[in-house]
Design a protein that fits this description.
binds NADP nicotinamide-adenine-dinucleotide phosphate; 10 helices; Rossmann fold; 2 domains; six-stranded parallel β-sheet; alpha/beta
């Protein structure tokens, strides 16, 4: 089967940074589905996993953690899906990625594809939806049914893939007052269209801009970009007894003491935790994706697809990686067809 992979970890402008390869088609075992992949999306995790290092792989390393496709076959213990079902999922960090014609994935982290979306539109959603959902509702403990309506949320990195989903959940489900950061005219238009209440610029003084808006502090802060750079600003603008969740690893230590006087809490969100450790509640990702699909089909939530490249091959994946490495992606870049 066709796949796109890497042997060497190279800068994206080098021809061998991603290559078209032929690999064996796998067979499903246990709770695995074999999915015929119709579309994939690209995330910063792909570019981080591909980033230059000396290591050389003996067999091609396959990246890709967002897919939509059709179940081709199922393992003997599968109970939720059958051949022919249309699905979407992010997959597991510890398994080969989905940039291949056929792909194995555990049914507990797979959702039924939204009926109203095509494969490309659906592939844009799983990884960012799970991340935003877990960050807001599992880590920060925001009520998804609206019991926290009117509370204040700051999203750092509003127009990116995760910010675009978190904004929709915050406005449509939690009914929060949402301030996001965006720095460019086109990203400001994008977040405005998602229904945010206020926009500030992450390259300018965040506490000063928050003060100018007359906001005394945020009950919740979601950091979707550069935790190191924004740490002190977050500590300044979080409300007393407020909560911060970051999804972006730090390069160095951060000063947790800066949160003490406010009794503010900090938590991490890593969307691969449940699948990596096969936690008892791993099936929650199946539930989240099904809930997201229902919200899409009900018209409450929209796909964040912003660009579609065709077909899925090394050249197009390199273009998508280069755009994401530029750090100014808006919504999601998707590839479809083989
Ligand atoms: N922990 C997890 O489970 C998890 C899951 C998903 C993603 N992540 C990580 O979260 C980060 C965001 O992911 P994503 O998919 O949303 O990325 P993305 O789509 O590539 O984010 C692009 C956005 O980042 C904004 N941005 C650029 N520089 C910024 C800065 N200094 N401060 C704040 N915002 C800035 C840009 O806004 P402007 O163009 O307006 O400047 C752009 O809209 C990545 O580091 C990714 O690896 C972690």
């Amino acid at each position: 089967m066709k796949a796109v992979g890497l042997y060497k970890y190279l800068p994206i402008d080098l021809p061998d940074s991603l290559v078209d390869v032929e690999i064996d088609k796998p067979s499903p075992n246990g709770r695995q589905l074999l999915v015929q992949v119709r579309a994939v999306a690209v995330n910063p995790v792909d570019t981080k996993m591909r980033s230059p290092q000396d290591k050389v792989e003996d067999s091609p390393r396959i990246l890709g953690w967002d897919a939509a496709g059709v179940v081709e076959a199922v393992g003997s213990e599968v109970t939720h899906y059958k051949a022919g079902d249309e699905v979407f999922y992010a997959g597991s960090f510890t398994q080969p990625g989905c940039n291949s014609e056929f792909h194995l994935v555990d049914e507990r982290i797979v959702g039924a594809k939204p009926k109203t979306l095509d494969f490309a539109q659906a592939a844009a959603m799983p990884l960012t939806s799970i991340t935003a959902w877990e960050a807001m509702f599992d880590r920060l403990g925001i009520d998804s049914a609206g019991a926290d309506a009117g509370k204040n949320l700051l999203i750092i990195g509003g127009a990116g893939g995760v910010g675009s989903m978190a904004t929709q959940f915050a406005k449509q489900l939690a009914k929060l007052t949402v301030t996001v950061t965006a720095s460019r005219p086109e990203s400001k238009v994008w977040v405005n269209d998602l229904g945010v209440d206020h926009i500030i610029n992450h390259y300018l003084d965040i506490p000063q801009q928050v003060d100018n808006l007359g906001i005394s502090g945020f009950d919740y802060i979601l950091c979707f970009n550069d935790t190191d750079e924004h740490w002190q600003s977050m500590a300044t603008v979080v409300a007393p007894q407020g909560s911060i969740c970051s999804i972006v690893e730090t390069a160095g230590d951060v000063d947790l003491g800066a949160l003490k006087s406010k009794s503010a809490t900090f938590s991490w969100e890593f969307m691969f935790t449940r699948s990596m450790y096969e936690t008892d509640d791993m099936i929650e990702q199946h539930n989240i994706l099904n809930r997201v699909a229902d919200l899409v089909d009900a018209g409450s939530i929209s796909t964040t697809t912003n660009k579609i490249l065709e077909p899925i091959n090394a050249n197009n994946l390199k273009a998508a990686h280069a755009e994401i490495e530029g750090r100014h992606a808006i919504g999601k870049i998707v590839l479809q067809g083989w």
